[in-house]
Amino acid sequence: MTTADILKKVRELEIKSKKLTNHLFTGEYHTAFKGRGMSFKEVREYEPGDDPRFIDWNVSARMGHTFSKIFEEERELSVYLLIDISASSLFGTLRQSKKDLMTEMCAVLAFSAISNNDKVGLIFFSDHVEKFIPAKKGRDHVLYMVREMLTFKSRSSQTDVLKALQFLNATTRHKSIVFVLSDFADAGYHDTLRVAAKRHDVIGVQVYDQRDEQLPQAGLMNLRDAETGQMVLLNTNDPYTRFKYTQQFQKVLEDAKNSFRKAGADLLQVATGQDYVKLLQQFFIRRA
């Protein structure tokens, strides 16, 4: 894409994300993710029904009548988006690639975060962490992240979710909201996910394409694994081949479900071309 194309796409994502944030996710996002606790705001005159435990006896003695302490939620949170940019993310057959879907979802989540005065950061990963953008507030920061999502090129084709989670655990000490977006066609990350989920509020977003699930009936096809480069000749009309292909995909879905469930973390599963807006809204409402 040219610079003009990139700026146009960034602007389109900003408009779409802000519209969704303002009209659909206002309130849902805020209540779905709790702040770090309660902080003192002010005192006011005691009213019937106030909790007597929060009476400020010092102020009440000075003023000659009863005052209560008022508290508010410490709202500020950090949201981290861990995005799989391995070669498999470029695959897609229904109007968008997995990368396109992850970029749109991350833009919506990032604008939802800053509209609630939260900070948001980004980790791109393949088989290692390729770029880390620390969490900050503000529109300019989110626009920078969206530009990076659209233009950043991975230096590796392979995936290692474990490395991304290890980096998160090593660099992010305070409890954060963490979205991990990947197809999760990987293994060996389960124990590290459990550690991350104990420290942070972790939500997985597993993206896939309809052709991950089912082969087209197109006869003999030479296929190349995007991550390993391995070539294989498949007869896509063969019933057993089609059965094994679908079975392998179902195993990837089930492995991810089991890993996140055992870690005590949430997992959303969404296909390219699917209405991710409805999925996110239902998720926010369910958590609230």
Features:
single chain, 288 residues, alpha/beta, six-stranded mixed beta sheet
- What fraction strand? 15-25%
Major sheet description = 6 strands, mixed
Radius of gyration: 23 Å
List the strand order in the largest sheet.
Answer: 5-4-3-6-7-10
H-E order: HHEHEEHEEHHEHEHEEHEH
Secondary structure tally: strands: 10
Low-confidence stretches: none
Number of continuous helical runs? 10
Question: What is the molecular shape?
Answer: elongated
Mean pLDDT: 87
The proportion of residues forming helix, as a percent range, comes to: 40-55%
In whole angstroms, the N-to-C terminal distance is 40 Å
* Structural class determined from secondary elements: alpha/beta
